[in-house]
Design a protein that fits this description.
This protein is mainly α. About 60% of the residues lie in helices and about 0% in strands. The protein has a two-stranded antiparallel sheet. Helix 1 (about 20-40) crosses helix 9 and helix 1 crosses helix 11 (about 315-325).
């Protein structure tokens, strides 16, 4: 079930058997649901503070969504790879499987970025799914090469330290050395933004002069996924569920404390995916996972057996709808606005904008109207993905 993060259509005779770590699917469902809400708030800047990304340095709950999803992909990669190896799959076959997954994810990202008009001169190559594809491919290769947690931890640390060195000490052409010729993490005068401008013209970058999913910032994003992989390795140890939850919670608190210290010299910044941001987001992801394990795997399913499994699945079904079809839910939510906006009852006014303005007319307080629009939008997406869930159709590769 934790393998259902990545797609190809498959229909099973029954809903996938309850995994010992149902909590991972539940947390993934919560993450995807919130991701859909914040990406579709109707009002843009009208939304509540918590429903918007930080403008630059800093952190909001919305800034936790993407790294938590990458973190969960790291966990799922451990589960799925270990399960396939246990069933006798060869490393060469898994390598081919990994490459196919990454390519499909990347192509889905291009579809999402270009739908519905597919204009090549403005096609954004970077994006959420392309970054997921790159991180997934690299961490899966590493795990196939060596499942040693020490090696994985060392690579994660190297990614964070290496990125800090690059962003802090390498001169930015045309600007100077950070903290000397140019402020540290200047919006356009940072190495990440400069490199993206050398690779793509402005029309291909999300923010014209920079891209929040740019090439260089994929390095620390890789560390986010590797932290998930370390967590997956920890979950496969022989310790009790309670011990594992406590260990994850402790790691979360340690990560938050480390992020707070590093933030003093290397600010938390989601758009640049700074090393302190990686640690801060990982801390909250770990704490949320520990809470999910406690609620789902300890309190929600205290006994083994089919009846207990079925009861737990019914209890958490609303989140499992998204959690077991995460990529399907995300892609649907990204394509739906474009499809709706093909119909314009009023020239030059997008249908999604018109729907929000109509709601704002009924509820004249913009933040509340934006929140309700988000809830209605995620409900529509949930109802669509629920049709797959109830028919036991899950997207896999």
């Amino acid at each position: 079930m934790s393998e259902a993060v990545l797609p190809t259509l498959e229909r099973t005779a029954t809903i996938p058997a309850l995994h010992r770590w149902l909590s991972v699917d539940v947390l993934r469902g919560l993450t995807i649901g919130f991701m859909i809400m914040v990406n579709n708030n109707g009002g843009g800047n009208d939304a509540y503070w918590a429903m918007k990304h930080t403008d630059w340095n800093g952190f909001t709950p919305t800034d936790l969504v993407f790294p938590t999803f990458l973190f969960l992909i790291g966990i799922s990669t451990v589960f799925s790879t270990a399960a396939r190896l246990a069933k006798g799959a060869t490393r060469s076959s898994l390598l081919a499987h990994t490459f196919r997954r990454a390519v499909i994810l990347f192509l889905l990202g291009l579809l999402v970025n270009s739908f519905p008009f597919f204009r090549l001169h403005t096609l954004r190559i970077y994006g959420v799914l392309p970054r997921i594809a790159a991180c997934y491919f690299l961490i899966a290769l590493l795990y196939l090469a060596t499942p040693s947690w020490k090696t994985i931890a060392a690579v994660a640390a190297a990614c964070l330290l290496g990125y800090w060195i690059l962003m802090r000490f390498v001169p930015v052409p045309g600007y100077g050395v950070p903290t000397h010729g140019v402020p540290l993490l200047d919006r356009d005068g940072n190495l990440t933004a400069w490199l993206d401008r050398q690779i793509f013209p402005a029309s291909h970058l999300y923010e014209r002069t920079r891209d929040p999913e740019g090439l260089l910032s994929t390095l620390p994003a890789l560390a986010t996924a590797l932290f998930g992989m370390l967590t997956g390795i920890w979950l496969r140890t022989t310790r009790s569920i309670a011990q594992k939850a406590k260990g994850i919670a402790f790691a979360g608190l340690l990560s938050l404390a480390s992020a707070g210290l590093w933030n003093l010299t290397f600010p938390i910044n989601k758009k640049l995916w700074t090393s302190s941001y990686v640690l801060y987001a990982a801390g909250w992801s770990l704490l949320l996972l520990a809470l999910s394990i406690w609620l789902v795997d300890i309190l929600g399913a205290p006994k083994s057996g089919a009846r207990s499994d079925a009861a737990a699945r019914r209890t958490f079904m609303p989140l499992l709808v998204f959690g077991t079809n995460a990529i399907a839910a995300y892609v649907f939510s990204e394509l739906l606005p474009g499809a709706l906006d093909l119909y314009r009852p009023i020239p030059k006014l997008l249908l999604t904008r018109r729907l929000y303005l109509d709601l704002l007319h009924l509820i004249p307080y913009a933040p509340l109207a934006s929140m309700i629009y988000s809830i209605l939008f995620v409900t529509v997406c949930w109802l669509a993905i629920y049709q797959l869930y109830r028919r036991r159709i899950f997207l896999k590769i």
